[in-house]
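Allow me, if you will, to draw on your knowledge of protein folds for a short while. I have a record of one protein: its chain in single-letter code and its fold written as discrete structure tokens. The full record is reproduced below for your convenience:
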Amino acid sequence: MATALRKDLPDLTWRQFTLLLQIYTSPPPHTVRGLAKDLKMSKPAVTRALDRLEKLEFLRRKIDENDRRSILVQRTVAGSVFLREFADMASGQAKEL
């Protein structure tokens, strides 16, 4: 998706981009279980998408100390920068149309 706008931004699937937007536009805390429920996706599908986003350092996961069965998903600076750059590129493309 992002490659259509700018070659140096990582290309994300719609699922990955949707998860990223959910994490950055809704108030924390975010859990794998909660994201799956909110987005009507399976937990394994969420986990695979989070794997890619974590590899890109757009988010990080850690065990919830209050409920060790739960995994918290946290925002990162790199994820914020990516979304800002993506929004700027999309806005620039829209103005050119």
The chain has one domain: 9-96. Strands lie at 30-31, 59-63, 71-75. The chain has four helices and three strands.
